[in-house]
Amino acid sequence: xxxxxxxxxxxxxxxxxxxxxxxxxxxxxxxxxxxxxxxxxxxxxxxxxxxxxxxxxxxxxxxxxxxxxxxxxxxxxxxxxxxxxxxxxxxxxxxxxxxxxxxxxxxxxxxxxxxxxxxxxxxxxxxxxxxxxxxxxxxxxxxxxxxxxxxxxxxxxxxxxxxxxxxxxxxxxxxxxxxxxxxxxxxxxxxxxxxxxxxxxxxxxxxxxxxxxxxxxxxxxxxxxxxxxxxxxxxxxxxxxxxxxxxxxxxxxxxxxxxxxxxxxxxxxxxxxxxxxxxxxxxxxxxxxxxxxxxxxxxxxxxxxxxxxxxxx
Length: 313
Description:
The chain has 313 residues and is an all-alpha fold. The protein is built from twelve helices and two strands; from the N terminus they run ααββαααααααααα.
């Protein structure tokens, strides 16, 4: 009887310990769930706050300037009363497209080499070396473009100005190259080996396997890396300001100085324009336009990812 009572007591104690551990585990899960919900709520609240500020401040600008004049005007001189937005669009477009021409194909090719052709020792050296480019300050890229890239362009094209869109696009392309190559390499490496082995079993060559099987199967991740790189190019400020100048030209000539939307926001925020004036409110109008552009790009990226993901999954 004493032995049975002792076993029952030990069983009760064990159950009590398990129950207390379960309660502690559940309490910890509730705390973690609350922290995660708080983080998600803060991110949503921050986004809503940004939208509210941009819309409320830009509303005062569009009460004085028509949307049509803002979107179709070819002269951007807010202090003089000219609010044509197209010169900033041209500058941003030159930098973004030029950076994409540099980083997207090179990043994809580097990702293919790292995932499919490079041996492990080479990959261990090359991938960290590429990712080091992402840690270089943007101001360093700006001076690199100003004192290294621009002189080379002037030797090739003598009409190139000291500040030009081409050098800014090149350095922004170099800045976004690690992002594209790393994400592409991860997407390609995630393709199941069974797909490769099946293609090899049908007699396909290495190039055919990569181009017709691996890359299409990883197209969702590849497109995501492209959109992220272009979004980074649109939002770049310091390197573009140093390399491409601060002249809002309505031109698509990459050898001339241009001004991007982000560069204008930075230049105007320095305090040279009277606070509360229409010229000052252009900051929020341009910021709202930039926000809408980035939002549309993200929506397009999600649609492309969904399309290619469903096609090759």
